[in-house]
Amino acid sequence: MADSSPAPSAARGAFIVLEGMDRAGKTTQASLLRAKLAAQSSRPVELIKFPDRTTAIGTMIDAYLRSATDLDDRAIHLLFSANRWECAARIEAALAAGTTLVCDRYAFSGIAFSAAKPSLADAFEWCATPDTGLPAPDVTIFLDLSPETAAERGGYGRERYEREEVQRAVRAVFARIGGQQEADLPDAPDAMLGRARNWRVVDAGHSVEEVAAAVWANVHEAGLADGTQAPLGRLWAPS
């Protein structure tokens, strides 16, 4: 006789991160995904964004990104990490309470934009280390876009990192984080420092609707449309 008892409800909210190149449409896609999840899930869904420019640390980062101030490359990297850490407890509490979080940028951007700088080109693991132990995403969806296409989009060039040569270097580091440059990586498990688990790539060069459909397909395939039973992981922690 078949078991007709209902499936157990998900233990917590899902932590879904959207990463990507500048002008890849992350903010738009994060908003669309939040709305889709809210419409199809019984649980609350919130949208968060990094850097969080509303905090004390965030205001310093905002000034730096607008080129209103200059900081040492290592100092600004640690500020970005501190900005995530000051929000970590809130992220954990929301997930535990059953809220699904859609996050626009996370620690992977911190690594990519810092390790792309000439001064930190050989410091990949150093760039990852400050975020060790942060809540790990259940899935990270990377919106890939060529620097040439990004430069054609409105608003490009307003902030410090929006230059084609910078974006090419950043894209290469993102590929390393996602495990797409296997030749550059030693044999190691997925939990190797600085390398992401459950990393999905979506071509952001298509229409908003096509990209949104691809993002949703990845979330659904990962089984995260209505939370998850899996325990919350930690960045760079062994499986």
From TrEMBL:
<comment type="pathway">
    <text>Pyrimidine metabolism; dTTP biosynthesis.</text>
</comment>
<dbReference type="InterPro" id="IPR018095">
    <property type="entry name" value="Thymidylate_kin_CS"/>
</dbReference>
<dbReference type="GO" id="GO:0006227">
    <property type="term" value="P:dUDP biosynthetic process"/>
</dbReference>
<dbReference type="Pfam" id="PF02223">
    <property type="entry name" value="Thymidylate_kin"/>
</dbReference>
<dbReference type="GO" id="GO:0004550">
    <property type="term" value="F:nucleoside diphosphate kinase activity"/>
</dbReference>
<dbReference type="InterPro" id="IPR027417">
    <property type="entry name" value="P-loop_NTPase"/>
</dbReference>
<keyword id="KW-0808">Transferase</keyword>
<feature type="domain" description="Thymidylate kinase-like">
    <location>
        <begin position="18"/>
        <end position="178"/>
    </location>
</feature>
<keyword id="KW-0547">Nucleotide-binding</keyword>
<dbReference type="InterPro" id="IPR039430">
    <property type="entry name" value="Thymidylate_kin-like_dom"/>
</dbReference>
<keyword id="KW-0418">Kinase</keyword>
<dbReference type="GO" id="GO:0006235">
    <property type="term" value="P:dTTP biosynthetic process"/>
</dbReference>
<keyword id="KW-0067">ATP-binding</keyword>
<dbReference type="GO" id="GO:0004798">
    <property type="term" value="F:dTMP kinase activity"/>
</dbReference>
<protein>
    <recommendedName>
        <fullName>Thymidylate kinase</fullName>
        <ecNumber>2.7.4.9</ecNumber>
    </recommendedName>
</protein>
<comment type="similarity">
    <text>Belongs to the thymidylate kinase family.</text>
</comment>
<dbReference type="GO" id="GO:0006233">
    <property type="term" value="P:dTDP biosynthetic process"/>
</dbReference>
<dbReference type="GO" id="GO:0005634">
    <property type="term" value="C:nucleus"/>
</dbReference>
<dbReference type="InterPro" id="IPR018094">
    <property type="entry name" value="Thymidylate_kinase"/>
</dbReference>
<dbReference type="GO" id="GO:0005829">
    <property type="term" value="C:cytosol"/>
</dbReference>
<dbReference type="GO" id="GO:0005524">
    <property type="term" value="F:ATP binding"/>
</dbReference>
<keyword id="KW-0545">Nucleotide biosynthesis</keyword>
